[in-house]
């Protein structure tokens, strides 16, 4: 039976786990990253993640520190304007439209959008360039025992690992979190999200658009042109039975329904990829650290895909962890460092999850008086310029 030692073991090879491996590997630490499933790195492959991720401005520093941004930038689409549309009238057409333009607060775009399957491809390639990173796809974490000096982790390939720091990046049902006995608070909405890519006749103009009616937001996020046609990623949130009905529709009927739901703001929409369906919950771990362990990403927090907060919060976790490791590189994984990580991240995570929860519940409302109240709220917040700028900065991940 093999026993090896490493500075950091990362349990989870999704986008957050791969970013963590590249970040700490670039920093010079010895890293092992494991995941039970090999990453799917082609759009048309079975199991490909057809969602996209909008990296907001504060995440750029993490991607650069990880040596990832130069790889990702050629594939990224700028997000210059965040548009909020209320289509909650008697017919599903826009009645209130408000644009939040990045030029009001910054010389840079709000963020940059990339497909998740492509992120995995480029991140795996980055890890191949780092000799101190051992990426083991197809390998699961099967046991965790922590003590004052180390985390002892059993892997499914028979390896036993001693790590100074264990990072749990293994999803909303995190085996690492469960092994440490850390509980979670979960909020369910009865919603699911459809994720896919479309082309349309009108250009998106680098505008990310959230359309609110009922059931949940319908979000179009710019992607690079596809075969000469403007292209967007869509996340369409609906109550569960309706989402499943939409996912099963013949393509022509689906195209017609999503064009109507979009208010035809970009003209007719045409489906270009498979439709994937994802469950929607909010969830927060009671703690983001344990003995020799830090929880990041969905192991620590899950929220509906509104305002591009999810993965950007995960990179904020990594930004804090990296700062703490740089401050005391010989003491990574010790209790004082991990307690400080929890104290710095957990209040902000709670605040953002609570805010997104409220926004999602407002977006789901179907009663006409509540739709009217939602529309009035959007209009009033936009009308006050200082409030609008503050909301934009908070949305990009700045602290309040």
Automatic annotation (TrEMBL):
Cofactor: FAD
Domain FAD-binding: 6-349
Pathway assigned in UniProt: Cofactor biosynthesis; ubiquinone biosynthesis
Keyword terms of this UniProt record: FAD, Flavoprotein, Monooxygenase, Oxidoreductase
Record-linked InterPro entries: FAD-bd, FAD/NAD-bd_sf, UbiH/COQ6, UbiH/COQ6_monooxygenase
Family statement drawn from the similarity comment of this UniProt entry: Belongs to the UbiH/COQ6 family.
Protein name as catalogued: UbiH/UbiF family hydroxylase
């Amino acid at each position: 039976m093999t026993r090896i030692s490493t500075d950091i073991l990362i349990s989870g090879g999704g986008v957050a786990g791969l970013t963590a491996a590249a970040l700490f590997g670039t920093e010079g630490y010895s890293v092992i990253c494991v995941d039970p499933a090999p990453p799917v790195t082609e759009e048309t492959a079975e199991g490909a993640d057809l969602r996209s991720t909008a990296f907001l401005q504060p995440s750029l520093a993490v991607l650069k520190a990880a040596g990832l941004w130069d790889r990702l930038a050629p594939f990224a689409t700028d997000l210059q304007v965040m548009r909020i549309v209320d289509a909650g009238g008697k017919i599903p057409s826009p009645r209130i439209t408000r644009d939040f333009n990045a030029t009001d607060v910054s010389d840079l775009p709000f963020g940059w959008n990339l497909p998740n399957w492509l992120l995995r491809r480029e991140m795996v390639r980055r890890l191949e360039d780092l000799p101190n990173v051992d990426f083991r796809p197809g390998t699961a974490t099967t046991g965790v025992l922590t003590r004052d000096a180390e985390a002892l982790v059993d892997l499914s390939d028979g390896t036993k690992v001693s790590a100074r720091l264990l990072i749990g990046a293994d999803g909303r049902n995190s085996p690492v979190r469960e092994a440490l006995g850390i509980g979670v608070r979960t909020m369910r909405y009865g919603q699911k999200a459809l994720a896919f890519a479309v082309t349309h006749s009108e250009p998106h103009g680098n505008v990310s658009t959230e359309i609110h009616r009922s059931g949940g937001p319908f979000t179009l996020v710019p992607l690079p042109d596809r075969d000469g046609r403007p292209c967007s990623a869509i996340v369409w949130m609906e109550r569960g039975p309706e989402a499943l009905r939409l996912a099963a529709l013949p393509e022509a009927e689906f195209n017609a329904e999503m064009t109507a739901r979009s208010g035809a703001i970009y003209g007719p929409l045409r489906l270009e990829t498979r439709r994937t369906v994802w469950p929607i919950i909010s969830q927060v771990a009671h703690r983001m650290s344990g003995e020799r362990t830090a929880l990041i990403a969905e192991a620590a927090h899950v929220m509906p895909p509104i305002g591009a907060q999810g993965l950007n919060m995960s990179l904020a976790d990594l930004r804090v962890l990296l700062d703490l490791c740089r401050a005391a590189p010989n003491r990574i994984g010790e209790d004082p460092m991990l307690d400080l990580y929890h104290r710095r991240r957990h209040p902000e995570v709670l605040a953002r999850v609570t805010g997104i929860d409220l926004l999602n519940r407002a977006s789901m409302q179907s009663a006409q008086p509540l739709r009217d109240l939602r529309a009035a709220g959007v209009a009033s917040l936009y009308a006050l310029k200082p409030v609008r700028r503050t909301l934009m900065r908070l949305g990009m991940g700045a602290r309040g």
